[in-house]
Every structure is written in structure tokens, then in C-alpha cells.
Amino acid sequence: MSADPKGVAVLVGAGSIGQAIVRRTGFGRKVVVADLRLENAEAAAGVLEGAGFSCTAVCTDLGARASVEELAQRCQELGSVDRVICAAGVSPSQAPVEDILRVDLYGTAVMLEVFGRIVARGGAGLVVSSQSERRMPALSQEENDLLAMTPAEELLALPLLRNVSDTLRAYQLAKRCNALRVAAECIAWGRRGARLNAVSPGIVMTPLARDELEGPRGAGYRAMLSGMPAGRAATPDEVGELGAWLLGERAQFVTGSDFLMDGGATASYFYGDLRILRAKTREDGTSV
Question: Which among 136, 196, 209, 274 has the fewest CB atoms less than 10 Å away?
Fold first, then answer.
């Protein structure tokens, strides 16, 4: 256990990307690991404890405001919250439309709002989003503004979210909303002397990515891996490196931004070998 931890780092989503980020930013702090499944939070906390971190595991449902507020209260009881990492979410192959919008879209919005009220001066927050929204057609400025600034409790009633039937479309809208909420909420965070950013990884070798690679859109994902400049998937540790920089002292002038790190997949989708996937999207409405 680290000696006399100062500050609190909260991680929502006990997966490998979140763990990679908190391992680089949580030492010297009390680390709260929250997940919908307590056993997952406890397992991650156990690994971190074994590496010298001071950890607490908590069961939290990101898609329920009361649960997020309870988590914030628990964190405040432990000390001054100065690192906030939202790495929870479900993928198009893991959940129905309703759950994707409730967790990835609404839940993230609630978390940014709730923790934006308690984050310490000098603190920083990070949302782990996704490259996928970059391949969704542009929304109107009015629609962007609605996703960015509509009160969280009214988000799911927005007309552009009412009749979504495809899980990928729901996921892309949720991730577009994540980036927009980060830009909007960073203003409130800034009034407290804190920063807020997002990182949008491409395919990272996690259980979520494996579900996608083995799911109905697996062929498209495999084509993406072979057709993008990097020619491979990322590791969680590579995302952890960028996340740590964004949360750290060297990024003091960076806030309200969404950082794409996808091995060039988005660039190739628009301008390179992966344009064939874009053409297929125009023809039959499918995408990856």
C-alpha cells in the first residue's frame, strides 16, 4: 500500500483500458474502482493493491443517477477528488439500443455533471470514448448543440434519439455525445480550476473488441485492422500513455478536447484503402 495517499482517483469501468490509465495516474492517491459488477471492481482493485496502490472497490451503475451520486459521495468521504476516469460502456454487439443510450450516452453525461460539482482545483477528468463516431455522418449544428447542452435528464427524449433501432447507430450517437459533452462541461470544470478531456481509441485488444471481432460486424473490423496505416490493434497500455498525459501536469493548457488515436483507421476510411467500407455504408447502410 502506498504511504499516506493524497487525493482520490476514481475509475468507473474496471476494464483493461481504465486500469492502464489509473495505474499511471493513481499512485499516491486513494483509488476508487467502480463497476456495474462488484466482482470486476474487486478483481481490478486486488490487482492494483498487489502493485502497491491503495484501493476501494464499489458497485456503480453508470446508467443510474442515484448510483453515480452515491459514488461521488463515497469518493468525497475518502478525500479530495482530483482524478476522474470514465471508462465504462457497452458495445454494439454487447447490448441493445436502450442500454447503449442509457449507459454510454446518458450515464456519461450524468457522471461529468456530478463529478464536475466536486472535482478539486487542479484536478482533471478523462472520458474514454471511441473512434466510431468519426464515421457517422455529420449532425446539424442544432443537433450538436442539443447533445452538448440538453440537461442530462432530458437527453434520452431528444427526437434524434427516439427512433434509433440499430445498435451501431446508437453507439456512434453516444460517442458523438461524449465528445460534445466534454467540450460543454469543461467550462463548468474550468470554473473549479479543473480540466476535462476525452480520448477516442480505435480497436484496442480488450474483451469488448474481441466481442466485436467475433460478432456480426467482425469482417469489417478485420478489414479495418488490415487496411489502416498501423496495421494492427492498439494495446490498453498505449491508451494509458495518452490518458496519463492528458490527466497529468504536462497538459495544463489542454481541456475540452477529444483526442483520436486509432492507428490511422479514420484517415484511411475517408482517404485510403478503407474507403471501400465507406462506399458500402452508402450502399446498404451498414458500417463498423
Answer: 136
Which residues have a catalytic role annotated? Answer: 171, 175
d(CA 166, CA 103): 16
pLDDT in tens, 43-100: 999 999 999 999 999 999 999 999 999 999 999 999 999 999 999 999 888 899 999 9
Q: Where are the domains of the chain?
A: 8-283
Environment class of 20 (CB within 10 Å of its CB; exposed 0-12, middle 13-18, buried 19+): buried
Asked whether the whole model's pTM tops 0.90, one would answer: yes
Q: State pLDDT tens for residues 4-41.
A: 568 999 999 999 999 999 999 999 999 999 999 999 99
How far, rounded to the nearest angstrom, does the alpha carbon of residue 244 sit from its chain's CA centroid?
Answer: 14
Report the alpha-carbon angle 115-116-120, nearest 5.
Answer: 85
CA distances from 236 to 20, 99, 231, 241, 254 (A): 6, 24, 16, 9, 22
CATH no. of 8-283 = 3.40.50.720
List, as one string, the DSSP characters of 143-192. Answer: HHHHHHHS-GGGGGGSHHHHT---HHHHHHHHHHHHHHHHHHHHHHHHHT
Specify the pLDDT at position 280. Answer: 63
